Amino acid sequence: MAPTLGIVMPVLDEAAGLAPLLQALQPLRARGAELVVVDGGSTDGTPALAAPFADQVIAAPRGRARQMNAGAAASRAPRLLFLHADTRLPADADARVARALARAPWGRFDVRIDGRSRWLPLVAALMNLRSRLTGIATGDQAIFVRRDAFDRIGGFPDQPLMEDVEISRRLRAIGRPACLRARVVTSGRRWDAHGAWRTIRLMWRLRWRYWRGESPQSLAEAYRR
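RESULT FIELD:
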């Protein structure tokens, strides 16, 4: 039987915290979802750890966009959901996605950020509001899409950063997203490590430079500093 939903998870050296996230997806697999884990060259045993919990574990060239495109190509499902390795879905995510994609070509969840900073609830609220107003989603919000729409735009653009913004722009030309108020929970590890406001300023600067036409390659270099 063909899967009802393809969950595509790009990973790179995620062994330390991956098992609980994969275990949480097992009820969705039992209801007909397919989990495709796409490794970008891990050196910590991530593929072996993921294998018992996934329908497929495949390798792809490093880069989130490339890995997600490879996972989409490997999946047989008519609906796709792209899930970061540090993000947890609602228990009924499969049913919510099915209902949403019956009325819209794509969509995303609201997000809650799990971390130490007291500013993270505000950060998440602003992310959700901005996304609802603009129709632009972030990868942390677990973007989902009908396969026909994904194929129509050629999948994720082959770029090292802002692939979520760019695919949102292309999908928005097909139709507005379904903005689900159910929340995924994503790790605030980057905000905790670098400081909430410093990270916010960095991301806004990168987005502004992207909208002004700066190349994703140069933005990726700035992001890694």
